[in-house]
Structure to design on (110 residues):
């Protein structure tokens, strides 16, 4: 009898656990714009910078725009579309309005 009760409980709980897992995965999923921005950072900035160098910063949109312009003067080869994608991503994800994430603080370099 006890075995049947445990099995019934497991069967009843399975859909709830599955739903919770799918829901949390959906919350973590990036939008297409975020994915494009992250990919552009990895493709163009990671060549010269550790990602932490970029992700530990909090800048305004204008500041990110100036930094990207400076990187182009230093030899970064970015299309206008790449620039716009990177600036939008950095402004949204690492803008001054975004609180520093706990994981970012752990990876900060002295």
């Amino acid at each position: 009898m006890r075995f049947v009760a445990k099995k019934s409980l497991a069967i009843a709980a399975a859909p709830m656990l599955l739903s919770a897992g799918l829901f949390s995965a959906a919350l973590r999923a990036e939008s297409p714009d975020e994915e494009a921005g992250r990919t552009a950072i990895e493709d163009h900035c990671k060549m010269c910078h550790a990602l932490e160098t970029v992700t530990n910063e909090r800048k305004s949109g204008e500041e990110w725009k100036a930094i990207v312009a400076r990187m182009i003067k230093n030899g970064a080869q970015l299309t206008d579309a790449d620039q716009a994608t990177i600036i939008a991503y950095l402004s949204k994800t690492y803008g001054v309005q975004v609180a520093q994430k706990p994981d970012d603080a752990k990876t900060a370099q002295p």
